[in-house]
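Q: What would this chain look like folded?
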Amino acid sequence: MRYKVLTNIKAEDNLAQLFNAYQRQLHTLECLSLPNESMGDYQALLRSVASDAPSESAQHVFNHAVPRFYALQVLSNSLTDLHKNIGWCIKALTEFFDQYDGDLTRYAIETRLKVVDEFGSDDETDWEEDGFDEKGQKWKVTYKDDEKTLKRYSLHADLEQYFKQENSCGEKIGSSHPEDFAYFSTLVENATDFNSMKFLRQAFDAELPLYRQNEAGDMVQQSLGDEVENELNEALRNESIVGYFNTVLELARQAAITFVFATTADDYRKLLTQLQAVRDVCPS
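A: My prediction, written as C-alpha cells:
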C-alpha cells in the first residue's frame, strides 16, 4: 500500500522549503485520498460502478477519491517540476554570464560548434576540409556567424525548455497562476480546521488531552489557552505560506513574460534576477 503521494523536494533553498511547507498542510487530504483497497476490492468497485445500480462506496471512490488522488499527484508533480525548472534556468543563465560575459553572439557561435562537432550534421556546408592524417582526409566544423544559422543555438532557444511553450508538458515557468492552485491554497489556509486531533475528539466525543515538553524535559498537559494560542499561530503561519506561495507564482509569471521578449544581455540579466528572487523567497 502506498502511504504518500505528496513528496518533499530535496533541496535547501527557500523555494523548496516553501513548497514543502505548503504540501505538509495538505496531509489530511492526502490521507483521505490514498487508496486502501486490495486489487480484488478494486475490481469489485469497478464492476459495481459500471452496473445499473452502483454501490455508494463505488460512487464515492470514482466520483470523489480518484479525482482527489489525481489532483494531489498533479500538485506534487507541478511543485517539483517548477522548482527544478527555476533551478536549471538560474544555473544556465549564471553560466552564460560567467563564461560568456553576456555575449549572446559568442554563446551561439560556440554552442553551435560544440553541438555539430559532438552530434554531427547532415548539412554539407557545416563541414570543411582540415588537412590529412594517417587515416586520410580530416574535417572540421565550418565557422558560421549569420543570424539564421545561429538562431537554433541561441541562449533563448536553450532556455525555452524551462518555460511554457505551446506543446510543452508538465509544469514550466509561467504555466500556472495563483488561481489555478486556489482549491489547495484554501485548504492550506484552513488547515487548522482539519486538525487530526479535532477529528479524534469528534470521533470519540471526548476531550483528548494534548501534551508538550516543558523546560525541564517533562511532558505536561497543554491548557486550553495554550491550544488556542497554538492554533492561532498555526493559522497565521498557514496564511503566510499561501501568501508567499502566490507571490512565487506571480513572480514566475513575470519572469516568463520577460523571457518571451528577451533579446539583449540586459534582458537576460533581469530574468536571472527575477528567478533568483523566486528561489530566495522568504521562508515560511
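The longest strand covers residues 127-133.
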